[in-house]
Amino acid sequence: MTPDRQHETRYNWDWLSDHARSALMFAKGAAEATGSDRVEPQHLFFGLDRETHGIAASILERNGLTTKIDGMNLEGANSLEVNESDLDDVTGIIIQEAFKESARLGDRVAGTTELLLGYLAYIQAEARYQLTHEIDLYGPFAKILQAQSLGGKA
Question: What domains does the chain contain, in order, with CATH numbers?
Fold first, then answer.
């Protein structure tokens, strides 16, 4: 982590690359087009796909993921200015995860790749939580998850 960012707990919009900002602006447009007043994770996913100059879009395209949300094709969604207050809590966490990833890599800014990695980190954490609370906390699967979260081997 870079020395000037290692103690940060919130994010700074200046730490976003131009492509990441553009993806968030597309996400804001998707939120508006679907009638939402907040940018939610599915809108961010759309924005990452729509920002064609970022690496994340090529990853999503290569894996056959589309720009549809809740059955709506949002190809015509506008790009709108976005700020922190436009984000729902989960999207805020995803962006924080993206900044953690960029800091871990020693990058000064978070790009679309880091936003996608932040998205995946959130999904992984949520899945781990759901699995450990839905299964026997002392069973073998829970022990595997615990060992992995501590950096050990199962």
Answer: 13-128 (1.10.1780.10)
